[in-house]
Specification:
The complex is a heterodimer of chains A (698) and B (608).
Chain A lengths: L9 E7 L3 E8 L4 E7 L5 H16 L6 E7 L2 H7 L6 E6 L5 H4 L24 E4 L2 E2 L5 E3 L3 H14 L3 E5 L8 H13 L5 E4 H4 L5 H31 L6 E4 L5 E3 H6 L7 H16 L5 E6 L4 E7 L2 E2 L1 E2 L2 E3 L15 E3 L3 E2 L2 E3 L5 E5 L5 E7 L18 H7 L7 E2 L4 E2 L2 H16 L3 H23 L11 E5 L3 H12 L3 E4 L6 H8 L2 E12 L5 H19 L9 E10 L6 E5 L7 H16 L8 E12 L16 E9 L1 H4 L1 E7 L8 E2 L2 E4 L4 E4 L3 E5 L5 E5 L3
Helix pairs in contact in A: 1-7, 2-7, 4-5, 9-14, 10-11, 10-12, 11-12, 12-13
Chain B lengths: L5 H25 L3 H4 L4 E7 L4 E4 L4 H4 L2 H12 L8 E4 L12 E10 L2 E11 L28 E5 L2 E2 L1 H10 L3 H29 L1 H24 L4 E9 L9 E10 L2 E5 L15 H15 L14 E4 L18 H18 L14 E8 L2 E6 L30 H7 L2 E8 L15 E7 L3 E7 L20 E6 L2 E4 L8 E4 L3 E5 L14 H9 L5 H8 L3 E2 L2 E2 L1 H14 L7 H9 L18
Parallel strand pairs in B: 10-11
Antiparallel strand pairs in B: 1-2, 1-5, 3-4, 3-6, 4-5, 6-7, 8-9, 9-10, 12-13, 12-16, 14-15, 15-20, 16-19, 17-18, 17-20, 21-22
Helix pairs in contact in B: 1-6, 1-7, 5-6, 6-7, 8-9, 12-13
Classes of the chains: A alpha+beta (698), B alpha+beta (608).
Chain lengths: 698, 608
């Protein structure tokens, strides 16, 4: 299909996952191209160049026709997980070099005598102390000791550190000492030494979280710098000179140059993209309230979107494997207190291994057979029964191949593994055992969904489930049933929807400041003044951006009742339009909604002020559904829907055949995913060729 | 009763665990006091319709084991008279199932279809309950009447009608009513959250099936514990340990346990433990049972449902009139230390039955300092828990600076603490040369130093393990002692571990506390020299210490293998002559203390 005119311009989205690198291209005439190839884990950039070359050859466009590349990457998180970051030093206040190591001392588990934590990212020997003290009001109590500083920097230089983090007590209230240390470090240390000061990374109260975040920034900084430079070079060598944008963990995009200033902001770049994509299409489809479920080979991720905005958190942790959205299970890794889309992750994916204990209890995951050796049905050396094996045995997944034939499936091997590992031990018929594995995986995912909804006071029944990822659309109906959700949306290109999401990302900047004040008797003029200062900072950093005239600013404030420690965020109206009484009301309302009580007259504290600047994305994916395959994909097969419905001969269709709506049971097979429509659910075609599932009866 | 299918069972199990965790999160986020939201000194549990605990929030183990006693009192007293919208409250250790006055339990029966199908239970350590000192943890109380406001089990809400009389009285009897009532609101919000989630679960699966699942969870939990006990060789294992005692001239308080393993059950007998004392460290019965359950629960390696099932095969004997089961009206507000020491004692006994599972003694429990008084014309109460370090383990070092397994709590951030109280934290660090040597060493001691910024105040302290050190195992040495020193106008004074006198403090006073360091596991001469080198390079131990205690010679940041082999040979010959004392000398010197035990003010800032 070489029909692309020479004048067509392309925006390219590239999402790198552990297994696959996904491409979505949008041409200026609205056409969408997709492509998937195996990730090149030794040098991720290679797959990007390879993919772009293949695409340009296949579709007949020249590299110059690519005008923008938007990129989502897990390189930051992987650097921490694999311990491959820079040799990093830390300069901190005298008496506090162990803050990084002591963390919040709490354990992420009860009753485990073999408990382990990830080692601090800066070894104790490279943490240096300087005498100085500023108090919480920002007053200098003890001036910075210059001799200490010179000695510390000498030791940093001698240690050969490639990166140095600076975090002094109460620097959020007064950064003067940190600035002195930073300035001197730049003078004294080698030019390529990465310097990161906490007042720039996170000017907020709480020393462990601020230190840890700054250290993460320093630790991954050099690796991200190398990655970005290399990516830019190899693309440029291949003739692609388009500007590269990278997704932040908070969902906005940054230019490569900005990323180099704040590397920690792209730590969770990958998972954020799908959620942003869902929020964008959700608004277009009149579905602003969504619970997203993204399930791939090893993990499942859930997020909540309300009024078209993804929930955010700054209680994040990296380096501990799976990130569950709950402060209760923090402590094993390193705290990252930057805005991150609130994604709850759980170790349940297609590769999750099913096991039966000696007391005949069944578990699925969190350990995974991954892509290699993979599920038993892949015949790549894996023997353990996995969720994918169960879905093959049940008839949910095509029993012969996946990804349009690129991956062969062995039905016999799936059945054998399940028989040995599960059915035999539970003394259950094969199909019941397989269905048990499937249900249990859905239950585990349900916990992830609850972590972002009920745990935060939101009722899942008020939301539409939005499923994507290779396995999300297979599990969606089961998860929805467990949570009594009645409506599901599955977008086009669900299997590579994270890449689609990249095309929908807005340019986004955020500045914030801890500004602790009692709301009692606070003159709103003072607040206004602070917001103006923040906005001035933001304009300064955004001035050079293209389309900066279209920039939208949103003020926000974090408040809490006097005496509480956890804040809730409320939107603040623009200059001249807001007042303290309205803010009090908004906070009380939010508190009521989240925790079941709230009173606007109770004393409140203002904690943090924030301004978010955003540039709307240029028109994203608009799919008219033309070119959709219609009709039957593989006629029909026997599919088992649990003890109640048993095995049913089930039609296997393409998405295009849904026009007008068809009652389940159905299987909808596509190149990048499979959608399961159980009995009592009905499937319809929605806007932009999305699939809508609705529960027709309880 | 029929058995639920394993799938539904697991779904319900997950749902109940989620409810208990959700309760914990809601409580933390809405709490008003730093003790709850930063230190996380609170717990949540979910109980079935008989009041039997069936899920635990990821909170504090030593609390959770006390829920069964309290629930059984409640269920007995109010059987048949509960109504939807009721809330129950208690803190009284005598007759109501409480542990000590600062811990207030609030419980909500959950109705479905007209009957009670479960209970949401919460416990919060409140900042102040009145009594003779701010923070209500004074060791020098001799009877409960001095310890604060007692709440016998009663209704906090009667079919939705709040008990204003109780709340008004409570507010009038505590020093910081806004914090106490704010935290009570958080407990109530947590219970309401549980009600919403549990109702949804029952609506989906029906009462019958959920009840069956709950019964099965109890059975599974019990079966796992029986299996764990069966794996221990039959026999009786004994161990003794001590609390140093209170006051300037302390008399040691003895803990004595006999663990009799017989098949798949065990009897844990505390006979021989010291009589109750005239200080606030007596621990009412629920606490010793809780401590006993925690120790055994830690031995179960599988992930099991945290229900009362695992407590069933464990029989506890605690003679009346001892420090672990005192007679009314013994004082008990600082009783936490008894639970920690009981677990240490029990683990010592279990180390004989399971030598490759149990680790050496850790710091021996959290230290509780409180400072209260007046500042800027307003009363303030500051109280926190300093959490320490673990003992060396059969295959790895003890954790440096980690919560005790029995009390999974958190530290208060220095920056927020300084915002909230007229106190400056001078340092918060791991102390040099402070771990118990071993093949796998104990965790390093945590040090925390306070400077008083208020005009005046009163300091209270609960600490231990200065003369009776955390024990080592399998040839590992003991951990290091705890010290608390007050520094005023250039003069230093060592405070008792459990001071019996009121300690007045004033602006400018500096209080240094260093916790005990964890005991070691295995002979220090078997420690991998490379690990010793790492500790030297990281400034955890000195070069002299490495040489003297571990026989590892480090020169110019490198191992001298030849000298190390020689030195270890020398130490092997010397060991019988009380070598185990040497690391203590090193530690004392690091702390700035001379041979006679005098502390030098100038040395106080140089040890980390």
């Amino acid at each position: 299909m070489k029909s692309n005119a020479v004048g067509t311009r392309y925006r390219v989205a590239v999402d790198i996952g552990g297994t696959f690198t996904d491409f979505v291209l949008r041409g200026s005439e609205g056409q969408l191209l997709t492509y998937k190839l195996s990730s090149t884990t030794d040098d991720y950039g290679r797959a990007i160049v390879q993919g772009l070359r293949s695409l340009s050859a296949e579709h007949g466009f020249a590299p110059e026709q690519v005008v923008e590349i938007v990129h989502g990457t897990t390189v930051g998180a992987n650097t921490v997980l694999e311990g491959k970051g820079a040799k990093t030093a830390l300069i901190t206040t005298h008496g506090f070099r162990d803050v990084l190591e002591l963390r919040r001392v709490r354990l992420a588990e009860l009753y485990n005598m073999n408990y382990v934590r990830s080692a601090p990212l800066v070894q104790r020997r490279y943490r240096y102390e300087v005498r100085e003290r500023i108090n919480f009001r920002g007053d200098v109590v003890t001036p910075l000791n210059v001799e200490d500083l010179e000695r510390a920097l000498e030791l940093v230089a001698k240690s050969g550190a490639e990166s140095v983090a600076i975090c002094l007590l109460h620097s959020y209230a007064n950064a003067a000492h940190e600035k002195l240390v930073e300035q001197r470090a730049r003078e004294v240390l080698p030019a390529d030494c990465f310097v990161s000061a906490s007042y720039r990374v996170l000017p907020e109260i709480q020393e462990y979280e601020r230190t840890s975040t700054t250290v993460i920034n320093a630790y991954i900084g050099p690796a991200i710098r190398r990655y970005c430079q290399r990516l830019r070079e190899s693309l440029s060598e291949a003739g692609f000179h388009a500007p590269i944008q990278i997704m932040q963990s908070s969902g906005g995009i940054l230019s490569i140059d900005e990323v180099l200033q704040h590397p920690a902001q792209i730590l969770e770049s990958g998972p954020a993209a799908g959620v942003i994509g869902a929020a964008t299409v959700g608004i277009r489809w009149g579905e602003p309230n969504l619970l997203t479920v993204d399930m791939g080979g090893t993990t499942a991720k859930a997020a909540l979107i309300e009024d078209g905005r993804p929930g955010k958190t700054n209680e994040y942790e990296v380096g501990a494997g799976i990130n569950v959205s709950s402060k209760l299970v923090k402590g094993r890794g390193h705290a990252l207190k930057l805005p991150v889309i609130d994604i709850s992750e759980i170790g349940a994916g297609g590769g999750s291994i099913a096991r039966v204990s000696s007391h005949a209890t069944l578990s699925v995951g969190p350990d995974s057979a991954g892509a290699a050796p993979g599920p038993a049905c892949y015949c790549l050396g894996g023997n353990a029964a996995t969720l994918t094996d169960a879905m093959v045995a049940l008839g949910y997944v095509n029993p012969r191949y996946l990804i349009g034939g690129a991956l062969k499936i062995s039905f016999q091997d799936a059945v054998r593994a399940l028989q040995n590992d599960v059915a035999h031990q539970l003394n259950l018929p094969l199909l019941e055992a397989a269905h048990g594995v499937y249900t249990l995986a859905a239950t585990t995912m349900t916990r992830a969904v609850k972590a972002v909804s009920t745990f935060r006071g939101r009722d899942p029944r008020d939301f539409t489930l939005f499923a994507f990822g290779g396995n999300g659309p297979l599990m969606a109906a089961e998860i929805a049933s467990a949570l009594d959700i009645k409506r599901i949306r599955i977008p086009r290109f669900a299997g590579l929807f994270s890449a689609v999401g990249l095309l929908n990302a807005r340019m986004e900047r955020e500045v914030s400041r801890t500004w602790l004040r009692s709301m009692e008797g606070l003159a709103y003029d003072e607040v206004e003044q602070q917001f103006r200062l923040l906005e001035a900072d933001l304009w300064e950093s955004c001035r050079s951006l293209e389309r900066s005239d279209q920039m939208k600013l949103q003020r926000q404030a974090d408040l809490r009742y006097h005496g509480q420690a956890f804040e809730l965020t409320v939107d603040v109206l623009p200059s001249g339009a807001d007042n303290a009484i309205r803010i009090r009301k908004a906070f009380a309302k939010e508190h009521l909604r989240t925790y079941g009580h709230g009173a606007e007259e109770d004393p409140m504290d203002l904690v943090t002020l924030r301004v978010v600047a955003s540039l709307p994305a240029e028109a994203g994916m608009v799919e008219d559904g033309s070119g959709l395959a219609t009709g039957e994909a593989g006629s029909s097969r026997r599919v088992y829907f649990g003890p109640h419905f048993q095995s049913v001969e089930t039609p296997v269709l393409h998405r295009g055949a849904l026009e007008g709506g068809i009652d389940g049971p159905l299987v909808i097979e596509e190149h990048d995913t499979t959608i399961l429509v159980p009995p009592a659910w009905k499937a319809m075609l929605g806007s932009e060729a999305s699939v809508i599932l609705e529960r027709s009866a309880k | 009763m029929s058995t639920p299918d394993p799938i539904t069972l697991e779904v319900v199990h997950n749902a109940l665990d989620s409810i208990a965790d959700e309760m914990a999160l809601v409580l933390m986020r809405t709490a008003f006091s730093p003790v709850v939201r930063d230190s996380m000194d609170y717990s949540t549990g979910f109980c079935d319709r008989h009041g039997q605990m069936v899920a635990q929030g990821l909170t504090t183990a030593l609390h959770l084991g006390s829920f069964p006693d309290m629930m059984s009192v409640l269920c007995k007293k109010y059987a048949g008279s509960m109504r939807d919208g009721d809330l129950f409250v208690l803190n009284d250790p005598y007759g109501s199932g409480g542990m000590h006055l600062p811990d207030i339990y609030i419980v909500k029966p959950l109705f479905f279809g007209g009957s009670v199908e479960g209970y949401a239970a919460t416990l919060v350590h409140h900042t102040d309950m009145g009594g003779i000192t701010p923070g209500s943890t004074a060791v020098h109380a001799t009877e409960i009447f001095q310890e604060g406001f007692r709440i016998p089990l009663m209704r906090l809400s009667d079919a939705g009608e709040e008990n204003d009389v109780l709340l008004t009285l409570l507010a009038a009897n505590v020093r910081v009513p806004d914090k106490v009532l704010g935290d009570i609101r958080a407990q109530i919000a947590s219970c309401h959250g549980a009600a919403r989630a549990f109702t949804a679960l029952l609506a989906r699966y029906g009462c019958t099936l959920v009840r069956q699942c709950i019964d099965r969870l109890h059975e599974i939990s019990e079966a796992h514990m029986r299996e764990t006990i069966s794996a221990l060789p039959d026999g009786t294992y004994r161990f003794e340990d001590y609390i140093d005692g209170f006051g300037v001239d302390p008399v040691p308080i003895k803990f004595c346990v006999a663990v009799a393993v017989s098949g798949d059950t065990v009897t844990v007998d505390w006979t021989g433990t010291s009589p109750q004392v005239a200080a606030a460290i007596n621990a009412p019965g629920p606490f010793i049972r809780s401590a006993t359950y925690v120790a055994f629960r830690c031995l179960v390696s599988a992930r099991i449902p945290n229900t009362v099932g695992y407590m069933r095969p464990i029989h506890v004997i605690a003679p009346v009139g001892t420090i672990v089961n005192p007679r009314f009206p013994a004082a008990c507000n600082a009783r936490g230390i008894v639970g920690f020491r009981a677990i240490d004692t029990l683990m010592g006994a279990l180390s004989q039955a399971a030598p490759q599972r149990v680790y050496a003694a850790g710091e021996g429990g959290a230290t509780n300092p409180s400072i209260g008084g007046m500042h800027d014309g307003k009363p303030f109460v500051f109280t926190e828990t300093i959490l320490g370090s673990w003992g060396g383990r059969p295959d790895s070092d003890g954790l440096d600076g980690a919560a005790n397994l029995a009390a999974n709590q958190s530290n208060q951030p220095v920056e927020t603490l300084e915002c909230n109280a007229p106190i400056e934290i001078v340092d918060y660090a791991l102390a040099l040369n402070s771990s118990g040597p071993g093949k796998y060493r104990g965790g390093m001691a945590v040090r925390r130093t306070y400077r008083v910024l208020a005009e005046s105040g009163v300091f209270t302290l609960r600490s231990d393990r200065r003369s009776h050190l955390p024990y080592g195992l399998q040839g590992g040495y003991s951990g290091t002692p705890s010290y608390t020193v007050i520094l005023r106008e250039g003069k230093t004074k060592m405070l008792p571990v459990l001071p019996q006198d009121k300690i007045d403090v004033q602006r400018g006073d500096v209080i240094v506390h260093v916790q005990p360091g964890g005991g070691g596991f295995g002979s220090p001469l078997e420690r991998d020299p490379a690990l010793v080198l790492e500790d030297v390079l990281d400034g955890r131990i000195t070069v002299e210490y490495a040489r003297g205690v571990y026989g590892v010679v480090v020169a110019d940041c490198e191992l001298d293998w030849v000298e190390t082999i020689k030195q270890r040979e020398v130490l092997r010959m010397d060991r019988p002559q009380g070598h185990g004392q040497l690391h203590l000398d090193h530690f004392a010197r690091s702390f700035g203390m001379d041979a006679a035990g005098n502390v030098f003010g100038t040395a106080l800032s140089s040890m980390h």
